[in-house]
C-alpha cells in the first residue's frame, strides 16, 4: 500500500468526521486490503481476518473523532485490529491454513494448473511460514509489517510504541533466526536455493 501524503490523509479524515460518505469509502478502500492481508498472515484464517478487519473499521468509524492526527491513520487502524485479534486469540487458538494464505500472495501463484515456477514459489512460502513459526509474536508482527506491508521502521516504531533501534534489532534477530532455521533443515534449504538459482 502506498501511503497517502499526510495532508491528503488529514483532509480525508476531516471530511469523514463530517459524515462525507466518499471520504469514508476512500479511507476504507485504501486500508482494507493491506489490513486484511496482514490479519490473514497473523491469524492464518480468512474468516478470522475478515471478522477482525470488518470490526476494526466499525470501531474506527465509531471513534473517528478520537483519532490523533499526529499519527498515521494506518497505524491507528492496525493497532485497533491487533487488539481485536489479541482478544480473539484469548478465546480461540488460531489454525493456520497455508493453502488459503498462498492463494492471497499475488501473481506468482497461477490459478489452474501448477507450473514448476509456481510450485517452487509455493515451497518457498511454506518454508518461510515454517521459519516464521519459530519467531516470537512480536518478531513475526515486525517481519510482516516491514516485508509484507512495506511499513518504514519509523511507522512500525510508532505503531508498537518502541524505539526505532529496538525495531531494527528485532528485525535483525528475526531474519537471523529464520535463516538459521532454514539452513539447519536440508530440505527446506534446498527449496529456497532452487528459486534463487
How are the elements arranged and paired?
Elements: H1 6-17, H2 21-43, H3 46-62, H4 73-91, H5 98-103, H6 116-132, H7 137-148, H8 153-160, H9 164-184, H10 186-196
Helix pairs in contact: 1-2, 2-3, 2-4, 2-7, 3-4, 4-8, 6-9, 6-10, 7-9, 8-9
Oligomer: single chain
Number of strands: 0
CATH class categorisation of the largest domain: Mainly Alpha
How much is the radius of gyration in Å? 18 Å
Structural class of the helices, strands and pairings?
mainly alpha
Specify the biggest β-sheet: none
Unreliable stretches, pLDDT < 50, 5 or more residues? 105-114
Overview of the molecule:
The chain has 197 residues and is mainly alpha-helical. The chain has two domains: 6-91, RNA polymerase sigma factor, region 2, helix turn helix motif (Rna Polymerase Sigma Factor, Chain: A), CATH 1.10.1740; 113-196, Orthogonal Bundle (Arc Repressor Mutant, subunit A). Helix content is 74%, strand content 0%. It has ten helices and no strands. The longest helix has 23 residues, at 21-43. The chain is elongated, with a radius of gyration of 18 Å. The two termini are 29 Å apart. Residues 105-114 have low confidence and may be disordered.
At a glance:
This protein has helices at residues 6-17, 21-43, 46-62, 73-91, 98-103, 116-132, 137-148, 153-160, 164-184, 186-196. With 197 residues, the protein is mainly α.
Which short descriptors sum up this protein?
10 helices, mainly alpha, 74% helix, 2 domains, elongated, 197 residues, Arc Repressor Mutant, subunit A, Rna Polymerase Sigma Factor, Chain: A
